[in-house]
Amino acid sequence: MKHSSDALARTLALLAVAVVIGVGIRYNAFAGWATDSGAYISAGHAWAEGTVFRPASFVFWAPWSLRGNVEAPLGHTPGPIDGTITGMYPLGYPLLLAAAIKLAGPLAAHVVVPLTAGLLVWCAFVLGRSLSTPWAGVLAATLIGGTPVMLRHAIVAMSDVPAAAFWALSWVFSIRTGLHHAAAAGLAAAMAVMIRPNLAPQG
């Protein structure tokens, strides 16, 4: 009886994961339509193409010390050579986007956030199950999966959900014993910090 109850709880958690991923893909704009998301997508393509420093599309030739900032669009900063620009956001999320682009093409970059949203929901289930009961895990997965803020961020190319997912994954590994789990927890935490460096003091 206990085994069937646990299996049902796991099935419901997986259903929550599938729903969140499905919503994230179905309602995704598949475009970098805002300053941050557009700059993230641009940085992901730059890393995928190996063109981290690119020529500025607009060159301001006036002899002004800050002209590089005028040339760089929002979300970018002047490169080390005059007339070049580069992304100004932390490295972690653009690298995830670049990996997705390399594996499955340009549109795959927009699936990274829905997939990490699913990972976040699954981690909530595992944490709830490990610290309490499988049904506490289902409740945790349902609550995080149904949170309007999380669902809103699951459909745009932003770093909020991936950072939360890798931070939660670090917790999942950290409550388990063994050197390999400790190493996995450290790697997940490192990825979360690479995505959002302001998480480092919380470690």
Describe this structure in words.
This protein is mainly α and 203 residues long. The chain has a domain at 2-32 and 98-102 and 107-202. The chain is 63% helix and 4% strand. The protein contains nine helices and three strands. The protein has helices at residues 2-26, 35-49, 67-71, 92-104, 112-131, 134-145, 148-153, 160-174, 179-195, and strands at residues 54-55, 76-78, 84-87. Strands 1-3-2 form a three-stranded antiparallel sheet. Strand 2 (76-78) and strand 3 (84-87) form a beta hairpin. Helix 1 (2-26) packs parallel to helix 6, helix 2 packs across helix 4 (92-104) and helix 8 (160-174) runs antiparallel to helix 9 (179-195). The longest helix is centred in the N-terminal third of the chain and has 25 residues, at 2-26. The radius of gyration is 20 Å and the shape is elongated.
Topology at a glance:
Layout: H1 2-26, H2 35-49, E1 54-55, H3 67-71, E2 76-78, E3 84-87, H4 92-104, H5 112-131, H6 134-145, H7 148-153, H8 160-174, H9 179-195
Antiparallel strand pairs: 1-3, 2-3
Summary tags:
single chain; 203 residues; 3-stranded antiparallel sheet; 9 helices; 3 strands; elongated
